[in-house]
Design goal:
CATH superfamily: Electron Transport, Fmn-binding Protein, Chain A
Number of domains: 1
Helix content: 10-25%
CATH topology: Pnp Oxidase, Chain A
CATH architecture: Roll
Number of helices: 4
Largest sheet: 9 strands, antiparallel
Strand content: over 45%
Distance between the termini: 49 Å
CATH class: Mainly Beta
Structural class: alpha+beta
Radius of gyration: 20 Å
């Protein structure tokens, strides 16, 4: 007895498109939370952070006792900002660069760029700056959503 196997084309469930630098910049400006990636003596870490954009930099305000304040400056770090787009896709924007440390008790510097995270009195904070020079992004759309949009 012979069996015939029918070959069929399997479509991927998702389509991806690279975002332009301008699209990445717009995404970063509209959002204010992401994941900061950096290396410690105990391996890689990801830290959820609030951020603000200021010119060509992204700024994070962290307490002085946070590991990132001690491990990230002068090292290569990444910031990943992702979420649903208004068109139904899922966008991921990644910024990679060398972090720089701002001054002690960086309240005025952070307030200048509207880092609106409240800190208790007496907590020393630092600002970490990440230049927006190496940025990339991708939008992922399910094929069903892409087909629906094409029919509309």
């Amino acid at each position: 007895m012979s069996t015939t196997v029918e070959a069929r084309r399997i479509e991927p469930a998702e389509r991806q498109r690279q975002l332009s630098p301008d699209e990445c910049q717009a995404w970063l400006i509209r959002h204010h939370e992401g994941r900061l990636g950096y290396l410690t003596g105990r391996g890689p870490r990801r830290l959820a952070v609030r951020y603000a954009t200021s010119g060509d930099d992204i700024l994070f305000r962290l307490s002085d006792y946070n590991d990132a304040v001690h491990y990230a400056p002068e090292e290569q770090v990444s910031l990943v900002v992702d979420g649903r787009s208004s068109t139904g896709g899922f966008k991921t924007v990644t910024v990679v660069g060398t972090a720089r440390l701002g001054g002690e008790d960086a309240t005025s510097e952070a307030d200048d760029v509207q880092l609106d995270e409240p800190w208790p009195p007496g907590v020393v904070t630092r600002v970490i700056r990440l230049p927006i020079t190496n940025v990339s992004g991708v939008v992922t759309v399910s094929t069903a959503a892409a087909d629906q949009a094409a029919r509309s």
